[in-house]
Amino acid sequence: MDLVPHPDSPHSDNNSGGGGGVAAASSAGASPLSSPSRYESQKRRDWNTFGQYLRNHRPPLSLGRCSGAHVLEFLRYLDQFGKTKVHAQGCPFFGHPNPPAPCPCPLRQAWGSLDALVGRLRAAYEENGGRPENNPFGARAVRLYLREVREHQARARGVSYEKKKRRKNNPAAGPHHGDLNGNSSNGVGHHHHMPPPPPPPPSGAAV
Questions:
Q1: 8, 107, 126, 205 — which has fewest CB within 10 A?
Q2: What's residue 97's pLDDT?
Q3: What is the reported pLDDT for 207?
Q4: Domain locations in the chain?
Q5: What class, spelled out in words, does domain 37-157 have in CATH?
Q6: pLDDT tens-digit profile of 105-158?
Q7: Phi, psi angle pair for 172, to nearest 5°
Q8: Separation of alpha carbons 108 and 87, rounded Å
Q9: How many CA atoms lie within 13 A of 168 on its CB side?
Q10: 157 and 87 in contact (C-beta within 8 Å)?
Q11: Is the pLDDT of residue 4 over 50?
């Protein structure tokens, strides 16, 4: 395989949920009439990368014969381009979110990168004529693998991948982040502190 990591890939490890970038086998040019979104551009690069992987497979593998097992093989292959340190069980920094020193543990693709990649490839498969019921990226084995990677990396890196539940903000209140600390999205805000009403006018006074 002669794939190389793409330095500008959105699933590179320059954020908390990122991992190593997937290779860009061939970048399709943008349409002169419309510029594709970043998501669409990345999905196209990922699809081209997967297609090149199938062509380089020994023996070569057609998309119609691709199964969940081949997707898992592809995901494991991408680990060589990963940039996320995943500590081994015997490492003294196992479970340490901020290791104080380097260690020889391997670099891997982060769970967040793999999860996003599978989502893009699952959509690209059906956009390119694949039948949803035959989509290898939606196979149960792939879902179980992603769950296993998430749980293992959470323990090894000492991080949590639990999704935070967001509360619905009041549109009239404008954009704010009060729901993150529970102080202003539950109706307890400064806008409820109304000034007291003025005293009534004296009897017989003109209004």
A1: 205
A2: 86
A3: 45
A4: 37-157
A5: mainly alpha
A6: 999 999 999 999 999 999 999 999 999 999 999 999 999 999 999 999 999 988
A7: -75, -15
A8: 10
A9: 3
A10: yes
A11: no
